[in-house]
């Protein structure tokens, strides 16, 4: 929704070619359909791992940049897509990333660790969860009376700024993926 709104208001020069989900029963699919965006569901549960990976790759074969957002399945990114897949994570990576670290789990972990700062990270994807060169991060304070929900709301506000900004930098050529050694 955020990216679509930025495109419509003219602050992001991009197009959404399609929305891909591994489940058809999620809110993102419903919202994309309501906006008239093309949706493709590549159900993980109905495929073996190799078929799932192949189907994902086929689904993005004609796009310049793959922008993941809430996609919880690991896509083994083919070499041809290196530097063309990005993700946003609701924490300051490398902390609070990896399998199981999504949604409220991230914010609960930040609070349990007693951190005074959290935020979001936009990063290039590689073949590990929540890993790859960082594009940008935006920070928020963790307040003494925060709940996972209140922290999540502040982080989400920053995600709505960070993701379009990262895409804008990639699209205008001011940012290129720096390969990790």
User: Which structural class matches the secondary elements?
Assistant: alpha/beta
> Beta-strand percentage?
15-25%
Low-confidence stretches: none
Biggest sheet architecture: 4 strands, mixed
Shape, principal axes of CA atoms = globular
Q: Could you say what the CATH topology of the largest domain is called?
A: Rossmann fold
Count of alpha and pi helical runs: 5
Run of helices and strands: HEHEHEEHEEH
Task: Explain what the structure shows.
This protein is of the alpha/beta class and 181 residues long. It has 2 domains: 18-62, no CATH class; 65-171, 3-Layer(aba) Sandwich (Rossmann fold). It contains 5 helices and 6 strands; from the N terminus they run H-E-H-E-H-E-E-H-E-E-H. The protein has helices at residues 2-8, 27-34, 49-59, 104-112, 148-171, and strands at 19-21, 39-41, 66-68, 85-89, 117-124, 134-141. A 4-stranded mixed beta sheet has the order 3-4-5-6, with helices on one face. It has a two-stranded parallel ribbon with strand order 1-2. Helix 2 links the parallel strand 1 (19-21) and strand 2 (39-41).
């Amino acid at each position: 929704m955020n990216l679509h709104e930025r495109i419509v208001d003219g602050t992001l020069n991009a197009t959404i070619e399609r929305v891909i989900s591994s489940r058809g029963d999620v809110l993102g699919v419903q919202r994309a359909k309501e906006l008239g965006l093309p949706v493709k569901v590549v159900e993980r549960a109905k495929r073996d791992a190799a078929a799932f990976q192949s189907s994902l790759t086929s689904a993005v074969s004609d796009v310049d940049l793959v922008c993941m957002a809430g996609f919880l399945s690991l896509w083994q990114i083919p070499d041809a897509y290196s530097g063309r897949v990005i993700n946003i994570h609701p924490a300051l990576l490398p902390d609070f990333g990896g399998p199981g670290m999504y949604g409220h789990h991230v914010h609960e972990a930040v609070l349990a660790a007693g951190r005074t700062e959290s935020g979001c990270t936009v990063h290039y994807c590689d073949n590990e969860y929540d890993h790859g060169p960082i594009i940008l991060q935006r920070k928020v304070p963790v307040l003494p009376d925060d709940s996972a929900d209140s922290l999540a709301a502040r982080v989400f506000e920053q995600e709505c700024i960070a993701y379009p900004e990262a895409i804008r930098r990639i699209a205008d050529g001011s940012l290129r993926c720096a390969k990790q050694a």
